[in-house]
Write a structure and sequence with these properties.
The complex is a heterotrimer of chains A (about 350), B (about 260) and C (about 375). Chain A is α+β, with helices and mostly antiparallel strands and about 350 residues long. Chain A has two domains: about 220 residues, Rossmann fold (3-Layer(aba) Sandwich), CATH 3.40.50; about 110 residues, OB fold (Dihydrolipoamide Acetyltransferase, E2P). Chain A has eight helices and 20 strands. Chain A is elongated, with a radius of gyration of 24 Å. Classes of the chains: A alpha+beta (about 350), B mainly alpha (about 260), C mainly alpha (about 375).
Chain lengths: ~350, ~260, ~375
């Protein structure tokens, strides 16, 4: 028996005036889970988060927390920690006062609160900064204060709204690992909004991919990446080559698909013959050389040196394709004729 | 091109600042005339200014009326700014326009109107009447200043406070108002400066007991020009510079805090 | 449902104190200016009975009912009220005072009906009755008309004998326009100069705008009194520059008033333009130059159009404020340099002629509010853009 969901959103719709930003959305989140809401801006992911936090009310549908419906519950009674996009620290309070704020709201005794604040600041390695003002801290430090503040009162759920968006790349990657680590150590339930697919892939137990107010797919990072449910998911999560074609025949050892360019390739999924399909092929699944089931002759139209790999544009019977090749392929030149191959199990076919 | 610019700039600065600078030394003139050359240096006109019962009363009146009217205007303006915050629509635009209208109304017109109704309300020649009159004129300053301050308070910070367990009145008291405080103080200071400088409405509404410093100066300027006026002007300029520096400091503090 | 409207109710509760305060102490005074300017109860208060009896009169011979109503009014109306009414009627038709004096004496002697025509033949003349009738309506346009040098004649509205107020309105508009023009002329290049400088130079320029603006208008009047004196600083400078033998008179002249008004309003103009210019991207002028525009062309095609909203809104602000100037012309100007506000104050305080003061004030108020509405529209549009 599957456990009851900790947060349950059912039939949620939200309209601002005549614009409908979320439409008939359902999402279950389990205790201790790290769920990312991933999507482009305006896809409704932040709106859903603000509804879970209680700052907006759903126009239709309901939200349950631990079995209780919370639609009418004011934000300050929800006991959820939230980390905001620009941290939303109180500029007129010190770091310690910021972190102590939720404890003060809960009328915790002074000594107790001080100890908790100190521990929370230790956890984010900011023990020495307790008496500073937020404006005296760097972006990364402010981010960690916001994190400590959202965790110090042991909330039932932690909501994060693009918390790493303002940090530079290196710091962001460090913080991703730190947050993932905290999640595991403390057994937190985290709902994390981001538009950065690599961030979602790195951190989450499950990813909900948003598009135009709907969830297109909700699944583990590997499933979202390898078996995207829709063309939108395939293109939004990671880079992909989309090859359009038609199913020729299908059998026990796979399916043959005729691509628009005339090439016949084999894939694993059983499909109904005659259907128009799109074949997703991740650039890193292409190899040079003729060993493999699906082989094609191509010409190199462009090559870009990317440091840890080589990005190569190919043109062949499958149409223009991007390939991501290891550094060992460094010798290939523009205009050179090459043979590229890929395995049937590396193709993922979607209805066109 | 550069030389023309420099000369132009110097001329403009002279035009703007010259009058303020000219007043300063006259206040220390030992002689009885308000003109150059200075006949010797002395503080006697300050002694006259602060020693004369008439001047002293007017200084007290200015402080009382200024503080009371600014407090009233700041309170009303802050409440209204909180109520109008983040609201749109025709009624809100109209309300804002009416609230700012005292700024545009010629003081003489308001003076006539207020005297007409004060005759009925029995507020003529009273402190309360004068304080109310000054507060009406100051409300646009406080409203504008607090509105601007509230606009710069990040909604996210207030939401953060709510998510951390603060009910709405606590959010207002511990987060919104402290963050808007520099703007509220600025509004108060503007209102006070405005009240200090008010003459026209005071002429209509004040009795002999409510004669303010500005009114006293106006009468003296019209009737007999003595260096005591320059001493009063000197005091005014120094007060202005202090207020100005306070204002800049507040602004600087706010910027640093919000950065 | 109540929960959804709660924010609106809260907002209303917060705004309500200010609304109530301004309604009583701001809007009511303005409204009472309006009613004072158009109301005229001097005569109708004195003749309540006659007011009813004269209804439907054909304007020919006076009816007996009207005569007896007049008698009743003379017996019941207090002396002071009647005195005001008679003074007013006499100013319209001379001879009223003597006619009324005789009538009052005769009427006071008895309690019964009085034959007015027998008492004085003039009561048979419809002229006197018509005078009363024309003065009876409680509302009158005559103060507003008089504020514009017009009057109600037999043939409709006509121009009154001498032009007093129109000339002052024109003077007020003219001086305000001149001051606005001067402010723009000095303000535009100065704001651009501020924009072009950096560091301490800009700070000095900024301080020289802000300090005068914050300084009391009275202090600045004091300063200008000292500077403009007949053997004052400026006069001597001009004397030397012009090689003149006589001192140049400046105090209590129009030029002095205009110079000082420009000094008072200039900071507002400069800040209005500067706030628009500073908000514009810094690299527009270099960009224009990189595309081959010489400085003058770049100024004309890039900077000036961008600064225009600031110039216009600053101009409206300066013009609007200048219209209401009172203190400064009173201290620095001569008799011929006073603006409309001075006349409002004069009528109200010295002559206690509240209806005329209100009428003049009402016209000034309407002009100001119209400009203020324009200014508000422009500045909200600018903020929205």
């Amino acid at each position: 028996m599957t456990p009851a969901p900790f947060i349950r959103c059912d039939g949620i719709a939200k309209s601002f005036g005549t614009t409908r930003v979320i439409d008939n959305l359902a999402l279950d989140i389990f205790k201790g889970e790290f769920v990312s809401l991933l999507g482009p801006s305006g896809s409704g992911k932040t709106t859903l988060l603000t509804m879970i936090a209680g700052f907006e009310r759903p126009t239709e549908g309901g939200i349950w927390l631990d079995g209780y419906r919370i639609d009418d519950l004011a934000p300050h009674k929800r006991n959820m920690g939230m980390v905001f996009q620009n941290y939303a620290l109180f500029p007129h309070m010190t770091v310690a006062q910021n972190v102590g704020f939720p404890l003060r709201m809960r009328r915790m005794g002074r000594a107790d609160a001080q100890a908790r604040v100190a521990r929370a600041l230790e956890m984010v390695e900011l023990g020495a900064m307790a008496d500073r003002r937020p404006s005296q801290l760097s972006g990364g430090q402010q981010q960690r204060v916001a994190l400590a503040r959202a965790l110090v009162f042991e909330p039932r759920v932690v909501l994060m709204d693009e918390p790493l968006g303002a940090l530079d790349k290196r710091l962001r990657e460090q913080m991703q690992l730190d947050i993932r680590d905290l999640h595991r150590r403390l057994g937190l339930t985290i709902v994390f909004v981001t538009h950065d697919q690599s961030e979602a892939l790195t951190m989450s137990d499950r990813i909900a991919v948003f598009n135009k107010g709907r969830i297109e797919q909700i699944d583990t990072p590997a499933a979202v990446y390898d078996r995207p449910a829709t063309r939108f998911v395939a293109e939004f999560v990671g880079e992909t080559n989309m090859l359009s074609g038609r199913v020729a025949d299908t059998g026990p050892d796979g399916t043959a698909v005729d691509l628009a360019g005339g090439l016949r390739i084999r894939v694993r999924q059983p499909l109904e013959p005659g259907r128009a399909v799109s074949v997703c092929l991740r650039p890193e699944r292409l190899h040079l050389g003729g060993a493999g089931v699906n082989v094609m002759d191509c010409r190199v139209t462009d090559r870009v040196y990317m440091g840890d790999h080589l990005r190569v544009a190919l043109d062949g019977a499958a149409g223009p394709i991007i390939a991501r090749l290891p550094r060992s392929a460094d010798t290939i030149r523009e205009g050179e004729a090459v043979t590229a191959s890929f395995a049937p199990e590396d193709c993922w076919v979607l209805a066109a | 091109m550069g030389a023309i610019k420099t000369v132009w700039g110097i001329l403009c600065v002279l035009f703007l600042m010259g009058p303020l600078i000219v007043v300063l030394p006259i206040a220390f003139n030992a002689g009885g005339f308000v003109s150059f050359p200075i006949q010797g240096w002395s503080l006697r006109w300050f002694a006259v200014l602060f020693g004369d019962p008439g001047w002293r009363l007017s200084i007290w009146n200015s402080l009382i009326v200024g503080l009371a009217s600014s407090a009233l205007a700041t309170m009303l303006g802050t409440l209204a700014a909180l109520g109008l915050r983040g609201r749109v629509g025709v009624p809100v635009v109209l309300a804002r326009m009416v609230f700012l209208l005292p700024m545009a109304t010629p003081a003489v017109v308001l003076g006539v109107g207020m005297q007409l109704i004060y005759a009925r309300l029995g507020l003529g020649s009273t402190y309360a009447g004068l304080i109310i009159g000054h507060a009406v004129l100051s409300i646009p300053f406080t409203l504008l200043s607090v509105t601007a301050a509230l606009a710069s308070v990040d909604r996210g910070v207030e939401r953060a406070a709510a998510s951390l367990g603060a009910p709405p009145p606590t959010v207002l008291w511990l987060v919104t108002l402290p963050m808007a405080l520099p703007g509220i103080v600025t509004g108060f200071v503007f209102a006070f400066a405005n009240s200090l400088d008010e003459v026209v409405l005071t002429i209509f509404l004040a009795g002999p007991n409510q004669r303010t410093l500005a009114r006293q100066m106006f009468l003296q300027l019209r009737d007999n020009l003595s260096p005591a006026i320059a001493a009063a002007a000197f005091t005014f300029i120094i007060a202005t510079i202090c207020i100005g520096i306070t204002g800049l400091w507040l602004q600087h503090r706010r910027k640093r805090m919000m950065a | 449902m109540i929960a959804r409207h709660l924010p609106d109710l809260k907002a209303a509760a917060l705004v309500l104190p200010l609304v109530a305060f301004l309604a009583v102490f701001f809007l009511w005074p303005l409204a009472s200016i309006f009613t004072t300017a158009v109301s005229d109860t001097e005569v109708s208060r004195a003749f309540p009975e006659l007011g009813r009896a004269i209804d439907g009169w054909d304007g020919q011979a006076p009816t007996p009912a009207m005569q007896q109503a007049l008698v009743a009014d003379i017996r019941t109306t207090p002396q002071a009220t009647m005195g005001d009414a008679v003074r007013r009627l006499n100013s319209q038709t001379s001879g009223f005072r003597s006619l009324f004096g005789r009538t009052q004496q005769a009427v006071a002697r008895g309690t019964g009906p009085v034959d007015l025509v027998a008492l004085d033949g003039r009561w048979a003349d419809p002229l006197y009755w018509n005078t009363i009738r024309s003065a009876l309506p409680p509302y009158t346009p005559r103060f507003l008309l008089s504020a514009l040098d017009l009057q109600q004649g037999a043939e409709g509205i006509e121009v009154a004998g001498q032009s007093v107020h129109v000339q002052i309105f024109l003077r007020t508009l003219g001086i305000s326009a001149l001051v606005t023009g001067l402010c723009a002329l000095i303000g535009v290049p100065f704001a651009m100069l501020m924009l072009a400088t950096t560091g301490w130079v800009r700070n000095v320029l900024m301080a020289s705008v802000l300090l005068p603006m914050w300084t009391s208008v009275l202090v600045r009047c004091t300063a200008w009194l000292i500077i403009l004196q007949n053997d004052g600083v400026l006069s001597r400078i001009l004397q030397t520059l012009g090689g003149l033998r006589e001192a140049v008179p400046l105090l209590f002249t129009r030029s002095g008033v205009i110079i000082a008004m420009t000094h008072v309003m200039l900071p507002f103009m400069i800040l209005s333009i500067y706030s628009v210019l500073i908000a514009m991207p810094k690299n527009l002028m270099p960009a224009a130059a990189s595309m081959g525009a010489n400085p003058i062309a770049a100024f004309r095609t890039v900077l000036l159009p961008l600064a225009l909203p600031g110039i216009v809104s600053g101009g409206l602000l300066v013009f609007m404020t200048s219209l209401g100037f009172y203190i400064l012309p009173a201290l620095l100007g001569g008799g011929n340099d006073q603006l409309i506000s001075s006349f409002v104050a004069e009528y109200a305080i010295r002559q206690a002629n509240w209806p005329l003061a209100s009428a003049l004030g009402l016209i000034l108020l309407i002009v100001t509010v119209v400009i203020f509405a324009l200014y508000q529209r422009l500045s909200t549009r600018m903020a929205g853009a």
